[in-house]
Design goal:
Structural class: mainly alpha
Order of helices and strands: HHHHHHHHHHHHHHHH
CATH topology of the largest domain: Farnesyl Diphosphate Synthase
Number of helices: 16
GO biological process, one term: carotenoid biosynthetic process
InterPro entries: Isoprenoid_synthase_dom_sf, Squ/phyt_synthse, Squalene/phytoene_synthase_CS, Trans_IPPS_bact-type, Trans_IPPS_HH
Helix content: over 70%
Number of strands: 0
Radius of gyration: 25 Å
Distance between the termini: 82 Å
Cofactor: Mg(2+); Mn(2+); ATP
Protein name: Phytoene synthase
Family: Belongs to the phytoene/squalene synthase family.
Number of domains: 2
Largest sheet: none
CATH architecture of the largest domain: Orthogonal Bundle
Shape: globular
């Protein structure tokens, strides 16, 4: 159980640092909302520790030590670490998931750039999809199909963030757009950093990223119906709020340099109401086949880490290794059965 004082600290940090999540979390049931606040507080701490310091490498290494202490059951004596340690223990949170988030932060500390859209997906898998999978675990859902769609939603949200922050990132000499897109558009990165302008080419790339995010938002929606009924409005709200940010970018003609898209309190309230109605609709609709689509390849390891392990019919073990051992065992049994017959044949030959 999370200590109430630690939980209050987490709530305060989310309330002032993540308006979109704070709004969406209001629609989650308490049994999910409280551990989710602890989770997001830890994720926010991780993000800020890297973004708000010049010693990014030291910050990442320190976070690695804190995460290691949490999984040893000896968290640092801070409200955020104690609260997240309680979540890890209560929900048996696979370590791969927060470690993926930490790896994404390490990539930021290294100022890594991404050559292809797949590379951007790989980054988004770590800093966003991993959080979506952890949220699904908090709902006590380990279905691989639901987890795959949670990854779609996380990646879509991160693509929206990247599209919204093109100008802000450029002024900090950061770039998250795929480098091959920039090369195809004839954009010199250093020249763009020196003078960020919403040129036609940059706006086209921003539009392309928003379009891909919208595709993934669509893929994610059937996964919401696989979640507990009480959890669905909160997840729809998160999807609608971030989708709304993307629409604001589009409304500004994909200029994320001169202005930064944001949503108003009134819009958020409207999306919260819409999310409740969508929950009622999906509850009576037949399940979409999109639910069963494969996860993005860049997210597959997150799904594998969190998915429920079903009992195996193979006594030799699971996966390809178990299958091979089973085949070899069958050959060995066949050889042993054949030995008495062969001996009998030799005996008959000698008798003749």
């Amino acid at each position: 159980m999370i200590d109430p004082a630690d939980l209050e600290h987490c709530k305060a940090s989310i309330r002032t640092g993540s308006y979109s999540f704070h709004a969406a979390s209001r629609l989650l049931p308490g049994r999910v909302r409280d551990p989710a606040l602890a989770l997001y507080a830890f994720c926010r701490l991780t993000d800020d520790a890297v973004d708000l310091t010049h010693e990014k490498t030291e910050a990442v290494l320190m976070l690695g030590e804190r995460l290691d202490a949490i999984y040893r059951g000896q968290p640092r004596n801070t409200p955020t670490d104690r609260a997240f340690a309680a979540v890890v223990e209560d929900f048996e949170m696979p370590r791969t998931l927060p470690e993926a988030l930490l790896e994404g932060m390490a990539w930021d500390a290294m100022e890594k750039r991404y050559h292809t859209l797949s590379d951007v997906y790989a980054y988004s898998a770590r800093v966003a999809a991993a959080v979506g999978v952890m949220m699904t675990v908090l709902m006590r859902v380990r279905c691989p199909h639901a987890l795959a769609r949670a990854c779609d939603l996380g990646v879509a949200m991160q693509l929206t963030n990247i599209a919204r922050d093109v100008g802000e990132d450029a002024r900090a000499r950061r770039i998250y757009l795929p480098l091959d897109w920039l090369a195809q558009a004839g954009i010199d990165i250093e020249a763009f950093f020196d003078n960020p302008r919403p040129t036609r080419e940059i706006r086209k790339l921003t539009r392309r990223l928003i379009a891909d995010a919208n595709r993934l938002y669509f893929r994610s929606e059937p996964g919401v119906a696989a979640l507990p009924f009480a959890c669905r409005p909160g997840i729809f709200a998160a999807r609608n709020i971030y989708g709304g940010i993307g629409r604001e970018v589009a409304r500004r003609h994909y200029d994320s340099i001169n202005t930064r898209a944001y949503t108003t309190k009134g819009q958020k309230i409207g999306w919260l109401i819409q999310s409740t109605l969508e929950t009622l609709v999906v509850s009576v609709m037949p399940r979409s086949a999109v639910l069963y689509g494969k996860p993005l390849p860049e997210c597959a390891y997150l799904v594998e880490a969190a998915a429920e392990r079903l009992p195996s019919d193979n006594p030799w073990g699971e996966g390809r290794a178990g299958e091979l051992i089973a085949v070899l065992a069958q050959l060995e049994a066949k050889r042993r059965q054949a030995q008495p017959v062969a001996a009998l044949v030799e005996e008959r030959k000698r008798a003749i």
